[in-house]
Amino acid sequence: MTIDVVIQYLVEKKLREAYEQHRPKNAVIVVMNPWNGEVLAMASQPNFNPNYFPYYTQEDYKNRSISDQFEPGSTMKVITLAAALESHAINTEDLFSCVGYIELYDVFRIHCDGRQAHGDLTPGMILKKSCNVGAIQIAQRLGTRRLFDYLSRFGFGEKTGVQLPGEIRGVNRPPEKWSGLSLAALSIGQETAVNTLQLLRAFSSIVNGGVLYHPKILTKTKTFERVSETIEPMPVRRVISKETSRTISDMLKHVTEPGGSGRRAAIPGYGVLGKTGTAQ
Predict the structure, then answer these.
(1) Which residue, 84, 37, 90, is CA-closest to 240?
(2) Cβ(185)–Cβ(191) under 8 Å?
(3) What is the largest CA-CA distance in the chain?
(4) Which candidate in 44, 65, 67, 74 is catalytic?
(5) What are phi and psi of 227, to 5 degrees?
(6) 66 phi and psi angles, rounded to 5 deg
(7) Distance of CA 28 to CAs 15, 57, 82, 206, 277, Å?
(8) CA 226 to CA 198: how far, in whole Å?
(9) Which residue, among 10, 77, 71, has the nearest Cα to 40 in the 3D structure?
(10) How far apart are CA 117 and CA 107, in angstroms?
(11) Residue 220 pairs with which residues in a beta bridge?
């Protein structure tokens, strides 16, 4: 297997601590090598002790990283921005104005977190501040068809192909089923659903130079010490250029710096790329 026993141990330990402290309905951590799709650790809470499986429910048996879906929230802004840069709908120096909300059809208002007005922002600052208004304006330049096409290219709405049972496809509706608000909602990670592994492999393609991989958890199978099958890393397709990948990666570093929405994820001595995400 590709699982690293040390990383897996640390992941399970820290996930259990977080689960017991905050008591969410469930929690998941997955660690992947972005350069080849190898899953290094995968854990979810609540879990079960297989020595006493009759005392648990069917719900406890689930591998939540592939069987549960959720709205990705503001993490999807990274995909929106990558699509807009790759298709030349925007450039890194464009300015977008945020007054704390954006009004659609003179009826609907979508606000930024805390209804905060961010002022004029570059695309990089939109990610750093996690500005809803700016992300929606970028999506308006990108357009309905191109946003859907890039969501599909990043693997949303399809199974990742990991060698595990119980994976769901998530939700990536075609534009024919969108409402007038869907472009805005999808650009900030609502009206869609993903599983954790889908989101992780999309982010891996953002930082690895733009290539989407099939996540892999098996490296080879053996029968009586004889290797019967060796499984190589499988790239699926190129989704963005190396240049766009480098640009977005540089932007994601600023998210965890002072003033960024993900500053709590900063680790002294390390460059941490990140993106916060909250959805209704």
Answers:
(1) 84
(2) yes
(3) 70
(4) 74
(5) -70, 120
(6) -125, -15
(7) 7, 18, 25, 21, 14
(8) 33
(9) 10
(10) 19
(11) 230
Sign of CA dihedral 232, 233, 238, 243: negative
- For residue 16, give the nearest of 54, 48, 44 by alpha carbon: 44
Secondary element (H or E) of residue 166: none
Residue 46 exposure: Cα atoms within 13 Å on the Cβ side: 11
pLDDT number for residue 118:
95
* DSSP structure class, residue 38: B
**Which of 264, 204, 197 has its CA nearest to residue 28?**
197
Which secondary-structure segment (H or E) carries 181? none
User: Is 74 among the catalytic positions?
Assistant: yes
d(CA 2, CA 80): 31
Residue carrying the six token digits 């996930």: 15
Bridge pairing between strands 119-121 and 96-98: antiparallel
H or E element in which residue 20 lies? helix 5-22
119: left (phi over 0), alpha (psi -120 to 50) or beta: left
Mean pLDDT by 10 residues, the chain (280 residues): 97 97 94 96 92 88 94 97 98 96 93 92 96 97 97 97 94 96 97 96 97 93 80 90 97 94 93 87
Rounded Cα gap, residues 214 and 101, in angstroms: 38
Helix (H, G, I), strand (E, B) or coil at 87: coil
Half-sphere exposure of 195 (CA within 13 A, CB side): 25
Indicate the SS3 state at residue 232: coil
What does R_g of the chain's alpha carbons equal in angstroms?
Answer: 20
**Residue 273, CA distances (Å) to 119, 256, 265, 278 in order:** 24, 7, 9, 17
- Whether omega before 24 lies within 30 degrees of 0, making that bond cis, reads no
C-alpha distances in Å from residue 210, one per residue of 26, 56, 128: 31, 41, 21
